[in-house]
Amino acid sequence: MATSSSPAAAPYDPVEIAQALIRCPSVTPADAGALDALEAYLKPLGFVCERMPFSAPDTPDIDNLYARIGTTAPHFCFAGHSDVVPVGNADAWSVDPFGAEIKAGRLFGRGAADMKGAIACFAAAASRLIAEGSIPGSVSLLITGDEEGPAINGTQRMLEKLAARGETIDHCLVGEPTSVNKLGDMIKIGRRGSINGWLTVTGTQGHVAYPHLADNPVPLLLEMLKRLNDHVLDEGTPHFQPSNLEITTIDVGNPTTNVIPGVARGTVNIRFNDLHDGASLDSWMRQMLDEVVAEKGGTYELKTYNSGNAFLTTPGDFSALASRAVEKVTGLTPELSTSGGTSDARFICKYAPVMEFGLTNATMHKTDENVPVADMRQLADIYEALLRSYFATPPAS
User: Fold this and answer.
1) Average pLDDT for residues 282-289, to the nearest whole number?
2) Residue 220 is part of which domain span?
């Protein structure tokens, strides 16, 4: 098998890399030097680093980084995001949110768990293999600055560009913080899909004392939302929990007590399994709403946005390889799960088998986000074991 080689380089310390990344306040859509900081570690290893900036109307401009060493198969890709959510009330933090301070054996800072820590661990793991002189294939990092934001000018645009020029990813691991109680207790092999629906019911504004001269849209909105909410979408599937619809807002924008509003709005979100897709759920919602209108009259407008369908990487060689790497380092047998929210794996699954595995998620997006330093060193060991096993016996699935 062809090999890729690079100049000899000493293995990196994952904690040092994580601190450098955390000190860049890269709150979406700002990069704040995070990608430059990562490049500074990858280039000396021999990675060819390519910046991929993208823009689109009504969305923020985003910078992204694609770094690859090697040109041959098999091609193992690590995907992640350098952007972070806002810190919230900075005064509520016990440390500087972007100071990357270590206290009592824990690394603090926005992005420590989600997911600058994992990026650092993967870079450190790759450096260990590269220090030995060669990789029998290719390793890449696909790092976006738009995962916590609209996710329009990030991972999916990068994948489209790679595909257009004929680059193929054989397998991908996303470094999202998937561990729950202990590092290594969970690997994500899929995720449910997510669709939002914005429902608007229009009536006629009027005085509450003269309801016959008005048309109150609120009762119709409430009935529509009740029908949607009461319906059982499914009972789940072998790999997924049941789909669920949640009402997230109800709003009439009415500051007075003696006026019947002219418009009422409600928003729903559906997290759905592989029995559905965005198109089928859009159709189902409209059917339910049409039934209410047929019974009670009125008019409505529904707008939907499907941010990603459910996906599943069926358990097989790839998941077994990752599980063995976790077991080797931690002694734990990870649960193969599809729980939780969405990630950029929903885009990657169209191009390659993909799973997610990273640090514990207990403090992500919270004040005083932090991870144990010992966990970071173990995660780098797991990623190293995964890479070694992958190139020794590339998985078929």
Assistant:
1) 98
2) 193-308
